[in-house]
């Protein structure tokens, strides 16, 4: 029996900020942002979007082609939850029209939560082969105006359906994982922005990748030449390069060139969207599969998941015959092109317009009539949404 990804879809809000414009405004050389960090644009969250709306909007595209009747569980990975008690999964379950007799829960461990959800889904489906699990990984990367992390912000969601009919890729049971208590990145309960020691977090990421890579090779009796490409958690695209370059000397020049080319393909969407924490690895996978013309069914792809704090997992997927056709049903490039580019003033206004205070009954700027799920604002301390399927 094979278990894996039957379908995957992506959603990001309809606004973007150009990184050259941000660099100029922050007194930095544009090349620092576009080359040194490797970001060209970032998606910007309006005050009528959050992880629930983005997760629902990503999953709604997926559910156009899949029956909800077989979905037995909804796992929602996020570190930008909308409530300290109620799970984003329950809001999403309602809007997506999933049946009541399922399990639905939110999973948190920084950017790693989506991968934990994916692995729980795999284990569940392995025990219950007639069932499917919907995994959503949605986040808002928010560091604050005028911070070093600002260039690495972003927002979006990836939805994945896990089943015994993995039309995109099989999840191979070859994971290696680790946890280490690190003060590299965190967000206090009373803060709407992440706090980070950026350089330390980059070092922890690189070290954990290297440790897990060494363990992966021994545990699975594999080498770098077994891999057609990698997808990394990409807080910024240069991070993937920093990780991969550590192990490239293990193969000859020709394979190094090929793996670097796959890396560029895997960075393409992330370079235009920014960090989406739990969803970043899976956006990178989507980017690799959409952009590469050299991958083929049967190829093994390595995935490195990293969440600050810190927890990481390295595992692989094997591509399924016809995966390109399944993915072509969604045009991510078109979604990115359709975003309206904001001026710096509009971006800063949008950034500061988020409605974090539940004590005031207030309406968001939700335009309505979009057909998408929107956050309408607060009423009686309770979040109000609208969504018509
Ligand atoms: P910084 O201090 O502003 O940048 O912070 P820098 O001075 O380190 O420069 C960045 C790079 O640009 C350097 O290259 C410079 O040389 C280069 P590197 O040495 O890294 O290869 N540079 C230039 N290149 C070309 N032309 C130029 C130029 N000038 C400089 N003119 C930092 C950068 C990423 C640290 C900051 O943006 C930050 O703190 N970001 C947030 C934290 C982060 O993304 N950490 C990544 C690892 S942790 C992680 O992945 C988990 C996370 O997703 C959260 C979670 O798990 O929930 C963050």
Automatic annotation (TrEMBL):
GO MF, one example: hydroxymethylglutaryl-CoA synthase activity
Domain Hydroxymethylglutaryl-coenzyme A synthase C-terminal: 259-350
InterPro entries: HMG_CoA_synt_C_dom, HMG_CoA_synth_N, HMG_CoA_synthase_prok, Thiolase-like
Protein name: 3-hydroxy-3-methylglutaryl CoA synthase (PksG)
Coiled coil (residue ranges): none
Enzyme class, UniProt record, top EC level: transferase
Family membership noted in the UniProt record: Belongs to the thiolase-like superfamily. HMG-CoA synthase family.
Naturally occurring in which organism (per UniProt): Fructobacillus fructosus
């Amino acid at each position: 029996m094979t278990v894996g990804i039957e379908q995957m879809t992506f959603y990001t809000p309809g606004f973007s900020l150009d990184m050259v414009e941000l660099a100029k405004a922050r007194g930095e050389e544009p090349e620092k942002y576009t080359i040194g960090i490797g970001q060209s644009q970032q998606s910007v969250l309006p005050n009528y979007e959050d992880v629930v709306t983005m997760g629902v909007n990503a999953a709604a595209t997926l559910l156009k082609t899949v029956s909800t009747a077989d979905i037995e569980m909804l796992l929602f990975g996020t570190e930008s939850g909308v409530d300290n008690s109620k799970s984003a999964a329950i809001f999403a379950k309602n809007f997506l029209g999933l049946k009541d007799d399922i399990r639905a829960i939110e999973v948190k461990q920084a950017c790693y939560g989506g991968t934990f959800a994916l692995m729980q889904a795999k284990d569940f489906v392995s025990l219950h082969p007639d069932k499917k699990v919907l995994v959503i990984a949605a986040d808002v990367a928010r560091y604050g105006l005028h911070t070093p992390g600002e260039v690495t912000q972003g927002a979006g969601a990836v939805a994945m359906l896990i089943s015994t009919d993995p039309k995109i890729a099989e999840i191979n049971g070859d994971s290696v994982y680790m946890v280490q208590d690190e003060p590299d990145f965190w967000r206090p309960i009373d803060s709407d922005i992440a706090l980070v020691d950026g350089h330390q977090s980059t070092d922890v990421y690189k070290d954990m990748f290297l440790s897990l890579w060494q363990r992966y090779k021994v545990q699975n009796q594999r080498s770098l030449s077994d891999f057609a490409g990698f997808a990394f958690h990409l807080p910024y695209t240069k991070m993937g390069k920093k990780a991969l370059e550590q192990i490239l000397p293990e193969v000859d020049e020709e394979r190094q060139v090929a793996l670097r080319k796959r890396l560029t393909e895997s960075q393409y969407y992330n370079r235009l969207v920014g960090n989406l924490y739990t969803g970043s690895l899976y956006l990178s996978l989507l980017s690799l599969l959409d952009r590469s013309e050299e991958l083929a069914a049967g190829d093994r792809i390595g995935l490195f998941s990293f969440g600050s704090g810190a927890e990481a997992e390295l595992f692989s997927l094997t591509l399924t015959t016809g995966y390109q056709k399944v993915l072509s049903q969604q045009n991510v490039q078109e979604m990115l092109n359709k975003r309206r580019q904001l001026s710096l003033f509009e971006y800063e206004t949008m950034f500061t317009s988020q409605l974090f205070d539940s004590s005031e009954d207030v309406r968001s700027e939700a335009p309505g009539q979009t057909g998408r799920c929107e956050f309408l604002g607060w009423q009686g301390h309770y979040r109000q949404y609208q969504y018509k399927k």
